[in-house]
Amino acid sequence: MKAGADMRFxxxxxxxxxxxPAIAAPEPHQILTLAQHVADWQLAHPNAQDSRFETxxxxxxxxxxxxxxxxxxxxxxxxxxxxxxxxxxxxxENWQLGSREFHADDQVIGQTWIWAYEHVRDPKMIAPVRxxxxxxxAAAPHGSLDFIEGFPxxxxxxxxRWCWCDALFMGPPGWVELSRATGDPKYLDYADKEYSATVxxxxxxxxxxxxxxxxxxxxxxxxGEKIFWSRGNGWVYAGLARIISFLxxxxxxxxxxxxxxRKMSERLVxxxxxxxxxxxxxxxxxxxxxxxxxxxxxxxxxLAYGVASGxxxxxxxxxxxxxxxxxxxRAVEPDGKxxxxxxxxxAPDRVHREDTQLxxxxxxxxxxxxxxxxxxxxxxxxxxxxxxxxxxxxAARIEIPAAMLPPGVNGDWVAVLxxxxxxxELVKSGAVTVLDLPREAVIAVxxxxxxxxxxxxxxxxxxxxxxxxxxxxxxxxxxxxxPSHVIHDPLFPIEGAGWESDRVGYRxxxxxxxxxxxxxxKLPDPVLDRIGQAGQPSYHDEAAWGMxxxxxxDSLGAGGLGVLRAGMATQIGDMKIMTALVAARGPVLAGxxxxxxxxxxxxxxxxxxxxxxxxxxxxxxxxxxxxxxxPLVAGFGKYPDTDFFAxxxxxxGWGYMASWGRQSENGKDDVGVALFYPVAEIARTGDxxxxxxxxxxxxxxxRYAFAAAWSKEGHGLPDEASFRAWVTRTAxxxxxxxxxxx
Length: 742
Description:
- There is one protein chain.
- Helix 9 (172-182) packs parallel to helix 11.
- By secondary structure, this protein is of the alpha+beta class.
- The longest helix has 18 residues, at 358-375.
- Strand 18 (558-565) and strand 19 form a beta hairpin.
- The chain has a nine-stranded antiparallel sheet with strand order 13-20-21-22-23-30-27-26-25, with helices on one face.
- The chain is built from 16 helices and 31 strands.
């Protein structure tokens, strides 16, 4: 516990200790102080509950539920200690799951490992989760969901599927989150199918509540009421909130989860007792029912999330969440211990004041983070996106002028469009974000501060200049290439500087070639700051992440700049000074600025300056260049066994030239490369037998773009037909850019 925490906690709690139904809305700083106080007590007393294996298993469901809450606290707390504890725990457990292959209880800790991965993007953090989920998909358990007790190692034989309501918190949020983190829809597809089966089996369509398992379908309580366990429904309700927050933008499944969430919300509010708690058995007579904080914590979390996210709009939901939070605060001892947690079980049971458990604390931390989001004043501004020709766009780069940004905007703001929550990156001209746009002419987008439940960015962009420093390499902001540097020496592990998105990676050689090369990517993780270094396999060999896919040779590469000499598009050649600067590091926009000074053209020293940028979720590098007074060109290499195609000669706006075929570095794989250019700014196009190229009319202010695709990349453009369609669509988007107004 931090120094002075008891005193701060005592001051905060004065306003909450009176058990009156009418309460004032808590202040966000009060909520945070209480949540941190409870978390600190729990972290200092890891074995305070009991000595049973379920509680002490670091990969099991009890601790998994606690760590799910701790990730929520880490999202809203300025104290970095909580995130550090999560990272240390993951490393200590080697990011592994529990031992039972199919059991959801042994999957819940994976939600925490995915959270860690989304903050660090180290693939090892989710490798065991992916391997386990892949194995489950391959096995495709399909047994009955009837709960029959006595199977060894499980409560019942059906628990290789989600046949009990607790599993809807333990399993599916992680599956949905993994699809979001990796971009692979198969995890969401599996979870949605299994979740739907559980709903059919256990959801009571009259009461809009869940039975714990099939044994309770016909059981009745002492007064003849149906038995709906508070914590069991809390598991479902909290799991629903997490699933909705993790669902990808535009997911067709989203509507059914939101509908189920609203039905449960409507039913839960009138079941809340006058003291703010929910009864252990939800339909049991509320009189003389003791407090219970695990179910109350999960319900409070869900309600606060629903209000903060805009899913629940009736004022009654905010009132219920605030009453639930006040009830939780009254169950916290002055030292931070949470009381009134029903112990491990599978049905409504007795609760005593001194009872506590890790999952109860996890529920309180989830509730606290969502309450902060609900109570925090959130300044916001809504802007209009004008989408010419009503094009449906993927990862559209939206540039917002500084004059349209609200006061106080910073790097912790996001852009929100439907289910998309995308970072807002501040740049000199204002801000940049990337959004998937529907086929509408005018679209409203909201800019607001990030909520605690907003997941980390799904996509990323990153620029890097890795440079040798002693026996290791370090990433630098800018670098001037020394005269002693020669091609293939170890100064740069990737022979230059790089910029990448989750789709593709590019590098520009920081030497006399000044050409552009391509890295195909099977996985979305950033790679350019770690490949090519000591101990790493050659990036010319195919690896789990991808490989170097383009052969540059004497050409301009895959979109490089050069000059015309004797009718040939050539690399610029030796120069006196070459410098590189990371102009935008991401996560929305990555960019490099490169200057080449003192190279010779017709015996005269010349200069080329170039800017290369890529947006998250995109494969398109948008570029500008300045080389006054020289025949500046941009282009890509020409190779046999390829199909060349180009925009019609009468095209306006942006034109293109592209090729597809077996033009990979290894000589085996299909690769597509495309060059885009404003038709009115090009003097002519050319083919010199070595490169396809364009000659700029105005070399002092040249604009162009390029992109590449690899047949083996993850979830990309695997064949020529899809690549051609993408090139045509991209040219249309460049010709009809999105504009922003208030």
